[in-house]
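Q: Could you write out the predicted structure for this multi-component system? I'm mainly interested in how the pieces pack against one another.
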Amino acid sequence: MKSLARRRAVNWLMTGLCALALSAALVPLVSLLWLVISRGFAGLSWSFFTAIPAPVGETGGGVGNAIAGTLYVVGIACLIGVPIGVGAGVYLAERGDTRFGDSIRFTAEVLSGVPSIVVGIVAYGLVVLPMRRFSALAGGVALAVLMVPTLARSTEELIRLVPGSLREASLALGVPQWRTSLRIVLRTALGGIMTAILLSVARAAGETAPLLFTSLNNQFWNWRPDQPTASLTVQIFNYAVSPYPEWHDKAWSSALVLLLLVGALSLMGRWASRKKFR
Amino acid sequence: MQTASEIVTQAGEPERAPETSTARVNLPDRAWVAVLSVLGLGVLVVAALIVAELMRIGGPAIAHTGVVDFVANSVWDVTRDVYGALPYIYGTLVTSAVALVLALPVSVGLALFLTEMAPSSVKSVVSFPIGLLAGIPSVVFGLWGLFVLVPVLRRPIEPLLAKTLGFLPLFQGAPIGLGYLAGGTILAIMILPTITSISIEVLQTVPGALREAALALGATRWEAIRIAVLPYARAGIVGATMLGLGRALGETMAVTMVIGNSPTIRASLFAPGYSLPAVIANEFAEASGDLHTAALAALGLLLFAVTVALNVAARLLVRMSRRGPSRVAA
């Protein structure tokens, strides 16, 4: 039998190690946020948000087209991905208690673990090959495929949170099933679903890998879905791996803009559901 | 004594309201169900599309090279149309292994700290930055890795490792910073929130009675965790680790930016290497011909197959452990 003192010592040692794990997780996070803010802030100016990138050696220039491009591609992704994802979630919640529903649910869970670069190849095959050019549409399809599984799962969970008594009350009043689903159940869950959509949009806006060979990049403004389009993430990648120090500065500034965008979307998401449930 | 659910079962199912048989009411309902079913099918269609497209684009390369040569050959020469994926597979496995070795103890320790040790006020404060870590785009991790982590590894960490553990082939060679170790470290940081949050979820399902029984028998807090909590949660934590591994295998940007992008197989963790997602990211847009594109897509197919297999296994484990350990044993 080990002595009590020794057992206590082990207890405190392990508690200390677990607390140390906390700092091991926080140090990289704090370092990353601090550097993005401190190194990125200097490069921010009005023209950084509105101008197109300047060639090497020239000062000035911005990532206006990349910000617009990210929003554009993500917008296309929403148009395709949100109806399918939310619809599938409603199906799972309303009709999903079958073996078939379970297989859809499991597929969605597994799909959410598929690497995003693989999804990029799929969008390349679906859109870039037939159109014979890189395009914003292809990037949108890639991001939509990434959005569907997570959106389906979170929508289902949110709809299942709606109290059964609400649905029963509506049905008892003679309201048909479809109107009950749309007007009572979906409407009650709407705030939460908005949150889920905004969070998945935030995630999509931060994706780089599936855009590398779908929407590619563009040094100029583009508003056509069938043309290559710049995006913040691809721009950060290109700036970061370039050999020019002034482009590295731009990478940090662009990263700050990206974090602000992603953060704003997440905050809007939190706010959407808070307002609804209060 | 009857529990509430038993009483309800005895009372029988509540009677269904008589169905309105008028076609006028039922038709929209049927249409609604049909629309929903089609949308539900959408998930399966997406899955089928992914498999079909990867096979269609990647198939020619595997037909050209043969499955065994494709996976086992270490030469990747685009000009001669020789495609061997071994250096990329090796790099992916090594970086993911490094990531797991680094992230697993930290994640489980953190999860234990938050669920079993820390007061709830600490827990609510800490869960926010962990969520934040999960939300940072991978290209930003790559940027940080390239300009912060790599220089720190180059000096002092890699020379230090070489001095203390240099007798192992893992820690020999020039400390250049860019390489397997950098890739593995950045992956560890990125999968940490995944493993931690799922482990927390699993740990919360451990019945309080188990823990209390151990404490009542005189166990210290750590002993209660070791005897009662961890065995119960083991399957779930293994599942969480596999989900983290799945993320590590497929993670692209951060690894691409710090691994050094050299298609070689080296024993040393300091050496530059390459990974499956990284080579797809770097070469796909400028692939020199149909066969090159096909070979890269075949790498994607390989990656897809491995991550799906991992995810299926992991999800099953997490599901089972949520229902309790008896099912896991069976």
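A: Regarding packing and overall arrangement: Chain B is about 75% helix and 0% strand.
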